[in-house]
Write a structure and sequence with these properties.
Layout lengths: L1 E7 L2 H16 L1 E6 L6 E9 L5 H10 L5 E11 L3 E6 L3 H16 L13 E9 L8 E10 L3 E8 L2 E7 L2
Antiparallel strand pairs: 1-3, 1-8, 2-6, 4-5, 4-7, 5-6, 8-9
This protein binds adenosine-2'-monophosphate.
The site of adenosine-2'-monophosphate (2AM) has 5 residues, from strand 3.
């Protein structure tokens, strides 16, 4: 199973994220845009994992459990390959959570990328903007985003549609 830990957001937050995505959508000539149901912030990407390891992954989630917290998405930026994303203002609870999760995963023998963690919420991939359109890097209306905490997600296709299903023990 292709798995990752991520932070989900309530519907009203995802609706605000959709509004931030709209200018890209309206000013692009192509791109794979994240659907509103799939908006999340990845904490740790695990890749293909044996189903038998699910109990271990749930126990890790339990061990890093913390009170709910809030993020504030303030910036729009992109990686190579036309990956456009929103980034949050520095958030100590997010930092602590990601550190605890990656430490627990390393202890259990999961190999994670060496590169530093860059929190980002992907709005779309392979986006080609129309000539002359340069989005502002600062969000005019920063987006407050409450999250109840991390979940383990299963990335799969349902009737051909990329779906991130939160799993429960
Ligand atoms: P993203 O966080 O940059 O959007 C499910 O596929 C999630 O895991 C996606 O949100 C995705 O990236 C992240 N992901 C997918 N493949 C990855 C990889 N090889 N390395 C790190 N993260 C990956």
């Amino acid at each position: 199973m292709r798995l990752f830990y991520g932070l989900p957001f309530p519907h009203r937050v995802r609706r605000d994220l959709l509004l931030a995505q709209r200018p890209l959508l309206q000013n692009s000539i192509r791109g794979n845009f994240t659907s509103v149901t799939n908006f999340h912030l990845t904490l740790a990407f695990l890749g293909e994992v044996e189903e038998a390891r699910l109990p271990l992954l749930f126990s890790i989630l339990d061990a890093v459990k913390r009170p709910p917290f809030d993020l504030l998405f303030t910036h729009l930026d992109h990686f190579d390959g036309g990956i456009w994303y929103l980034s949050p203002a520095p958030c100590p609870p997010l930092f602590t959570l990601e550190k605890a999760l990656s430490a627990a995963l390393s202890r259990e023998g999961f190999s994670l990328p060496e590169r530093p963690y860059t929190p980002h919420l992907t709005l779309g991939r392979k986006i080609v903007l129309r000539n002359g359109f340069t989005p502002s890097p600062c969000l005019y209306h920063p987006i407050p985003a409450h999250t109840e905490g991390p979940r383990l997600f299963w990335s799969h296709r349902v009737d051909g549609v990329l779906t991130y299903t939160p799993l429960a023990p």
